[in-house]
Amino acid sequence: MQDPRLTKLADVLVNYSVKVKKGDLVAIAAEPLAMPLTLAVTRAVLKAGGNPFWLPRSEEMTEALLAYGSAEQIGFCSPVLVDMVQRIDCQIGFWCQLNTRFMSRVDPAKAAMLQQARRPWFKTFMDRSASGSLRWVGTAYPTNASAQDAEMSLTEYEDFVFRAGLLHLGNPAAEWAKIKDRQQQVCDYLNTKKSVRFAAPAGDGHDGTDLTVSVDGSTWINCCGDSNFPDGEVFAGPKGVDGRVNYTFPVVYNGREVEGVRLVFRGGRVVEASAKKGEDFLHKMLDQDAGARVLGEIAIGTNYNIKQFSKNTLFDEKIGGTFHAAVGAGYPESGSTNESGLHWDMVCDLRKGGTITADGEAFHRDGKFLRAGWPGES
């Protein structure tokens, strides 16, 4: 028997997130393991009048490419995929990991090469998304591998995932519409500001965070379940950044865990980078192209239903009371013009003494917004 929460999730993804219309060509990108959700989404797309097709993903095939492929083969971008992203109307993707560390022993230079091969596809995807001609959403399909990373049983992790998306409530789409309204107040406020400063106290052997981001001319985007699901953030494309940030949580990228990341920005670029674990990998990712050391995104997490770290960026970057910043490619609709094969989100906790100010005015302290009617504990 299919978990009824998958049917509810499929309905939200198809009818709320990407709003499938009659005749839409809809790619469903997923590992075979996620077939129960792929089938549920296929049914929902068909009921909405769209034309679904399954785009298989495979960790094993990626591993084979990296193990046996030449530099030319690893750096090859399939014209079939580029053509596909130019033609589809919607993409619904699932992150469904059989082994979260399957790339952990891959040469970082090869991993960077693989990232660079995606650039033509990724740029088309980003440009079409910014123009509104491509609607997309990504979500997590619970697996034992992800549950182990989060130090939960599969049943506990399923509950964590589905509650983060409000699927335990009677009408999740209506609840996300309410969240959209609350987050829009934050966006409207920040869209009048020129500079945002993020500060967190020193501790655990680091000198704290003090990061000033220019957002003059940027556009703050309201993320309310229409691109990521679950969602809960507001973000902008930085125009410049100076200062230092000590990221609270480890990050897992391409199967590598990097811990204790400290970045120093001057003139909009990373000029110093260190980590307690995985520093060599961090440097290789930052050195893969000219845009990798530029900040492409600055964001504030607003999902107060997500309270714990899980080593899954989809959830960790949304934790209410945190901010995250991504080095590498930015989203054109947010005002970013930075291009890179890298987009790496890293999260900083503000719930113990952190402050966010905009043009000198504090609006967020100790992980909470200071204005009534803005996102918060429900």
Structural commentary:
This protein has 378 residues and is an alpha+beta fold. It is 32% helix and 27% strand. The chain has helices spanning 4-17, 35-47, 59-68, 71-74, 79-87, 108-117, 119-131, 144-149, 154-164, 172-190, 279-286, 313-316; strands spanning 25-30, 51-56, 90-95, 135-140, 195-200, 209-214, 221-223, 228-229, 233-236, 240-246, 251-253, 256-258, 262-266, 269-274, 295-301, 322-328, 343-349, 355-358, 361-365, 368-369. An 8-stranded antiparallel sheet has the order 14-13-10-6-5-18-19-20. A hairpin with a 2-residue loop joins strand 19 and strand 20 (368-369). Helix 1 crosses helix 2 and helix 5 runs parallel beside helix 7. The longest helix is centred in the middle third of the chain and has 19 residues, at 172-190. The mean pLDDT is 94.
